[in-house]
Amino acid sequence: MNPIVAKFVSTILSSRTQAHIFHWQTQDDSSFAKHKALNEYYDEIVDLIDGLVESYQGKYGLIEFKPVNGIDNDCSAENILRYFDLLIKFLENERKAENLQDSWIQNQLDNVSELLYSTKYKLVNLQ
Hints:
The chain is mainly α and 127 residues long. The chain contains 4 helices and no strands. It has helices spanning 3-25, 31-60, 77-94, 103-124.
């Protein structure tokens, strides 16, 4: 498939993450306006790019993406479950950091953990 399309889609998807980081970092006089504008962007871009990819693939076939962060794009159940296992292990290891020990932060990390395990459960049951 067309590597230019894959690069375009990957770039736009990563812009969602960068916009969210900018959103968290706004501190100047116009920070609320920036904060809100960036929030709108990262909330809306995923649905827009999802629609673009699905319609493109409907016409031209699957886009072949390069692996991200060393994760194989193989969408077999085993590979997806392996990926979520890696995320769960990452969270469990990183949450032990000294600056993450406030109870309210641990509670928020528990919510992330809950989502990861719930997603894994749903994926396991699809096998």
